[in-house]
Amino acid sequence: MVAELSRLRDQIDDVDKQMVSLLARRLELVAEVGEVKSQHGLPIYAPDREAAMLASRRQEAQSQGVPPDLIEDVLRRTMRESYSSENDSGFKCLNPDLRQIVVIGGKGQLGGLFARLFALSGYQVTVLDKDDWEHADALLADAGMVVVSVPIDVTEAVISKLTQLPDDCLLVDLTSVKSGPLQAMLAAHSGPVVGLHPMFGPDVASLAKQVIVYCDGRHPEAYQWLLEQFRIWGAGLNRISAIEHDEGMTLIQALRHFTSFVYGVHLAEENPNLDQLTALSSPIYRLELAMVGRLFAQDAGLYADIIMSSPQNLAMIKRFYQRFGEAIDLLEQHDKATFVDAFAQVENWFGDYAPRFLQESQGLLRQANDATHRSAT
Predict the structure, then answer these.
(1) Which residues touch 30 (CB under 8 Å, ≥6 apart)?
(2) Where are the alpha helices (DSSP H) in 141-241?
(3) Where does the Chorismate mutase domain start and stop, copy by copy (predicted)?
(4) How many other β-carbons are positioned within 10 Å of the β-carbon of residue 189?
(5) Distance separating alpha carbons of residues 110 and 152, to the nearest angstrom
(6) Between vectors from CA 112 to CA 108 and to CA 114, what angle results, nearest 5°?
């Protein structure tokens, strides 16, 4: 039995080595594709091509007795690496006549990411950080675009200093709050203005499939090239008004981060054995715990600024607190019928999104479980 098992494992190892060689060859081809896309200004992410390829591979897998979900998982992970490697080829510059781009806060993580992407696209990029303001006038005098990427609590103050930009200079910000900064840019600068909110963190390996929200400010014809440059980087664009954006971020960011913060505080006060807690965790709880822990591995000041950036955030959190209390009343009264009725109402509100989210979450849980290492006992 031992000899037979060893022989089969040796064959599996040989197949695995072939898979590694094939993946290496695929990445080589991807690098060549990246060169072609860079030359011709094509986006690194082509959703139609990806969907057609996955559908074809799934069909081929099924015909050979391979689970279609397996080949899709392998290919999606491979493509994620491919999109990242395509960054090395650089990107076509869509506005080669643009004067220098000045990134205020370019030594920070998000500002640094955009500075690198602009440089990869062939633009002349200069960083203006908090220690460089004595040279600000000289740096900004010939700017073709100024990107403001500073902490939320100082964004409007920094923008208010930008009153001497060239008339044709494009002024943008990368802040997660839009109404205040957009109005500040319009007040400080008479030229083209657009508000941006990258819906991702600075640790992304690629902008493929990421989303950048933009809020029109002034002279939209002057920044269409910038939006198209984002598309070439692989990002999707979502146009929205500043007010609608901030209303959405109250739920997407402020409330979510606040509830994670409170849950983390609660855990720390209860002080469970974290090793034991993770050992006992189901995949879904471990994933939820990871998302809470992720918050506390990052900049506390950033999340404080996000949560405290708007009075409407506090109002939303208070309404959530009220509903939390109402839910506790159901528990105290042991009112299962009302609980079930409320559950059904929320299920109806989600509609078709509920089964869609169930399917999406099952994929996430499989990945989380695959990454878990448990010792045999």
Answers:
(1) 82, 85, 86
(2) 152-159, 179-188, 224-233
(3) 1-90
(4) 22
(5) 13
(6) 130
Largest distance between two CA atoms of the chain: 81
Q: Measuring CA to CA, which residue among 136, 184, 130, 137 is closest to residue 157? A: 184
Contact 307, 261 (CB under 8 A): yes
Inter-residue contact 148 to 174 (CB < 8 Å): yes
CA distance 344 to 365: 24
Instruction: Give tens-digit pLDDT for 124-167.
Output: 999 999 888 888 998 899 999 999 999 999 999 999 999 999 99
- Predicted TM-score of the model (pTM): 0.86
> pLDDT tens-digit profile of 230-289?
999 999 999 999 999 999 999 999 999 999 999 999 999 999 999 999 889 888 898 899
Task: Please state, in angstroms and as integers, the Cα–Cα distance from residue 154 to each residue in 39, 107, 159, 192, following that order.
Answer: 39, 16, 9, 22
**Tens-place pLDDT, residues 92-105:** 999 999 999 999 99
Q: Which helix (H) or strand (E) holds 297?
A: none
Q: What is the pLDDT of residues 163-183, one digit of tens each?
A: 999 999 999 999 999 999 999
d(CA 78, CA 96) in angstroms, rounded, equals 33
Can you list the positions of beta strands (E) in the chain?
Answer: 101-104, 125-128, 145-148, 170-173, 193-198, 211-218, 236-239
DSSP 8-state class, residue 203: T
Q: Using the 8-state DSSP alphabet, how is residue 310 labeled?
A: -
Single-letter amino acid, residue 252: I
Where b means 16+ CB within 10 Å and e means fewer, 81-118 reads ebbebbbebbbebbbeebbbbbbbbbbbebbbbbbebb
Q: Which residues, at least 6 apart from 335, have a Cβ–Cβ distance to it below 8 Å?
A: 329
Residue 310 pairs with which residues in a beta bridge?
none
